Amino acid sequence: MGVWTTQRGELFDWKFIEDFNNVELTIPLYNKLLAAGLESYSTRELNKNGGNHPSGFPWWQMAAYEYLHHSGLPEQVWHGRDTTLGSDIVSRPLYANQIGAEVLVSIHSNAFQNGAAHGSRIIYDSANGYQQESQKLGEAINSHLLERLRGQWKADWYSNVRGVPWGNEQGYGENHFFNGTAVIVEVAFHDNITDNIALRDPTFRDITATAIQESIVQYLDSRAMVTVISGTVQLPGRTNFSGTDIFLSPQPCPVLTSVVTVTGTRVAVTDERGYFEINLIPAYQCLQVHHDGFLIGQHSLTLGLDLDTLILPIGDVNGDNVIDIFDLSYLAAHYKSNDLAADLNVNGVVDIFDLTLAASNYQRRGAIPWP
Are residues 120 and 30 part of one domain? Predict the structure, then answer.
């Protein structure tokens, strides 16, 4: 018969359980976020009068995966791993993905060699594709924590922020599996007696909650500075320029010396004139465009937002972003057919005009830089 127990036991003889104290740390933060007008969600029950789980334990003491399970979420959200601990960790980012959250902040306390460390740590995934935005939020939280805790709690309070790749140390799945900006805030070290006393103190909890709330608001305000940009993509050999997909990525554009593939998220598609218009936030660094049969085009947004007309070279029949003998061979093999991939000028038949179009761009490769 199974026995319900905490993931982490009582610390020393201090009557301190991290699993429960994390809720105490989160409640004031959640309330402050709501008061700031932010739509906020929790993966734990934050109402300490919210009734009991069928086991008899209060709902606020239950782990995230169990709370989300009984909240009616799909099984792939709350049961994403073979173990309950693994499912509990990944249920948090999977839930955030499910609801389309913009930011994920995980509140914890820390431990290291029975009290050898102290202060706050902010951790982000340094290699999941969202590290730059996550670092920005982490640095904002670090700055606000230092300012408030040194001014209102302890003058020499220590805090830092660092990036940790997936698979290193504990893995930090809360960060890794969220499709967006994510940080873990280790508020203090619960195995350090001075930090432990702070973690229990309502004043300390309120100070840290205020600092984190201020940081989130500051970060979201910076992302709200949206710029509208537009451009035109022309398709040689055609009179209708519609159907080119526009992609944005938070990563820098791939170097042009290699064969480039499309990355990022599709955000728009061109109309019959080849025109597109998108809302750009500072998080994005690279714009790419793709249309079947043409080489990829790209533009580094760090170089400017003024986009002239881009003309995509035609002839990449097999989609490897190089126009070579394989493309010409494919065209020749489908000559006089109605093969859709080989009919580059979409006139209904593969003919000499398609061969001529591809041959005119022989040995060219993408990505094509924006002029």
Answer: yes
Of 122, 131, 137, 138, residue with least CA distance to 165: 131
Helices (H), 177-268: 193-200, 202-223
Question: How far is Cα 46 from Cα 102, in angstroms, rounded to an integer?
Answer: 21
- Note the pLDDT of residue 172: 82
Q: Are residues 168 and 236 in the same domain?
A: no
Give me the number of domains the chain comprises.
2
pLDDT at site 312: 97
Same domain, 337 and 304: yes
Separation between Cα atoms, residue 17 and residue 46, nearest integer Å: 16
Mind listing the pLDDT tens digit for each residue in 234-266?
999 999 999 999 999 888 888 876 667 888 888
Lookup result for tokens 């610390």: 11
Q: Of 223, 255, 274, which marks where a domain is finished?
A: 223
Pair 43, 68: CB distance under 8 Å: yes
CATH of the domain at 167: 3.40.630.40
The pLDDT assigned to 225 comes to 67
From CA 333, how far away is CA 290, in angstroms rounded?
25
Give the residue ranges of the chain where pLDDT is below 70.
Answer: 1-2, 167-171, 225-226, 257-259, 281-282
Q: Is residue 67 part of a domain?
A: no
Q: Is 248 inside any structural domain? A: yes
Question: Phi then psi for 302, rounded to 5 degrees?
Answer: -75, -15
How far is residue 334's CA from residue 341's CA, in Å, rounded to a whole number? 9
Range of the domain at 273: 227-369
Domain identity same for 255 and 343:
yes
Query: Is the distance from CB of 348 to CB of 304 less than 8 angstroms?
Result: no
248 & 284 share domain: yes
Give per-residue pLDDT as tens, 164-179.
887 644 568 888 899 8
Distances (CA, A) of 31 to 26, 62, 81, 152, 158: 9, 20, 31, 20, 26
Residues 344 and 205 in one domain: no
User: Tell me, what's the pLDDT at 258?
Assistant: 67
